[in-house]
């Protein structure tokens, strides 16, 4: 089976797998093997366990949609991260999300400073006074 996992950052995973297990907070857990019936489902917060022979990977999924049709599995997710275990994948995702939060805070501070400077410049030049 072919699985492709896509996030807003781009393609995260594109490989052949033997089987997957999907676990979602609201939808429970189910497996998909070759020639599985077509399925479309959501993944609120959960993971996909990917099995390739003896290799096993976990992909944490945040707000995603999964579709299986003719042994092609497509996943579109708001956020996703791969790990060798569920715990590692969740920990890696959390560290990335924490870094994004810090970056957003930094940008908000810069934006507030720029807005204050713009207001100061408008006041100094008298722009907008009629």
Task: Break the fold down into its secondary structure elements and pairings.
Layout: E1 2-7, E2 10-16, E3 19-24, E4 28-32, E5 39-52, E6 55-69, E7 72-83, H1 86-125
Parallel strand pairs: 1-7
Antiparallel strand pairs: 1-2, 3-4, 3-5, 5-6, 6-7
What key phrases describe this protein's structure?
alpha+beta, single chain, 130 residues, seven-stranded mixed β-sheet, ATP Synthase, domain 1
Structural class determined from secondary elements:
alpha+beta
CA gyration radius, whole angstroms: 22 Å
Number of helices: 1
Kindly, what is the distance between the CA atoms of the first and last residues, rounded to a whole number of angstroms? 69 Å
- Per the principal axes of the C-alpha atoms, what is the gross shape? elongated
Largest sheet: 7 strands, mixed
Q: Name the helix and strand elements from N-terminus to C-terminus, one letter apiece.
A: EEEEEEEH
* Beta-strand fraction estimate: over 45%
Helix proportion of residues, in percent? 25-40%
CATH class identity: Mainly Beta
Strands ordered across the widest β-sheet:
2-1-7-6-5-3-4
* Uncertain residue ranges: none
The residue-averaged pLDDT reads 90
What is the total number of structural domains?
1
Specify the CATH homologous superfamily: F0F1 ATP synthase delta/epsilon subunit, N-terminal
Tell me what the CATH architecture is.
Sandwich
CATH fold description:
ATP Synthase, domain 1
Q: Quick one: how many beta strands?
A: 7
């Amino acid at each position: 089976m072919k699985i492709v996992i896509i996030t807003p950052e781009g393609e995260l995973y594109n490989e052949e797998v033997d089987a997957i297990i999907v676990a979602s907070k609201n939808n429970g857990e189910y497996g998909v093997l070759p020639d599985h019936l077509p399925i479309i489902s959501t993944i609120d917060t959960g993971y996909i366990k990917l099995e390739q022979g003896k290799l096993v990977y976990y992909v944490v999924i945040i707000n995603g949609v999964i579709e299986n049709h003719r042994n092609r599995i497509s996943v579109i997710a708001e956020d996703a991260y791969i790990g060798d275990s569920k715990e590692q994948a969740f920990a890696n995702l959390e560290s990335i999300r924490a870094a994004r939060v810090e970056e957003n805070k930094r940008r908000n501070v810069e934006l507030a400073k720029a807005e204050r400077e713009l207001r100061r410049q408008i006041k100094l030049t008298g722009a907008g006074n009629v």
